[in-house]
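From the pipeline queue, job 12 of 40. The input is one protein chain; the requested action is below.

Action: predict structure.
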Amino acid sequence: MSILEGRVIAVTGAASGIGRALALALAGRGARLALADRDEAGLAETIAMLGNAHVWSSAFDVTDTAALQAFIDGAAAEFSQLDGLINNAGLTIVAPFADCPKDRFDLVMRVNFDAVVEGCRAALPHLRQRDQAWLVNISSVFGMMGYPTQSAYNASKFAVRGLTEALYLELGETDPQITVIRVHPGGIKTNVARNAENIAAMPGTDPALDPAAEFEKAARTTPEAAAQTIVRGMERRQHRVLIGPDARLIDWMVRFFPVSHARRLGAFLGGGNRQT
């Protein structure tokens, strides 16, 4: 029997991708679910896939702090407890920093970081009441290393990493029953890249190159495999979860080549993506 059986876990971004797969994986462990997404139709599809699982849901945009607070409090009221929150909702845009409009950069930060902050803030009082609880924040391999055209996403995911590491240390002292997990997925076969706003490419990049198509070719891990890895991390009370062989490779590169990994990556990227 999983330690997650009967637990109440809230998941944002549950209409597709990793969020949907997490809902299915958690339900398979007997967890009860509070699911959120701004995509109401996609959220309904996820719920239909869950069959008889005990689910409560709300459709809203995570940048609406009042709605996010209401979702967390509503889940706790619906189930008379809240045992975990997985801050999964996210988006990206494609643009070098110099070409990225401020409002688009700020939007990525609001969705990927500010909403994580507010989710943690809203959930923590409820989690502190439980004998065992989970606070899971989805960062990225781009929270471990920089990547061209992803400055906003990099900034948001590095921020999520820093926040989560601080929470791990703080709550380890004050509330050790709360497992704080930072997740670093590599390339996952989701719609994030396909749905990304493609504003501009790096100078010299082949104009025929489709960033989403290139990402999809490189993505090696399914959402289902990613979700199972995250859920196992929750069961094992891990602090750091790497998803996919590319995540493990990047982790190795950053650890062993803390300065030169950026140059090595740049040389690799320049091989096939630039015009000659």
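Job complete. The chain has one domain: 8-273.
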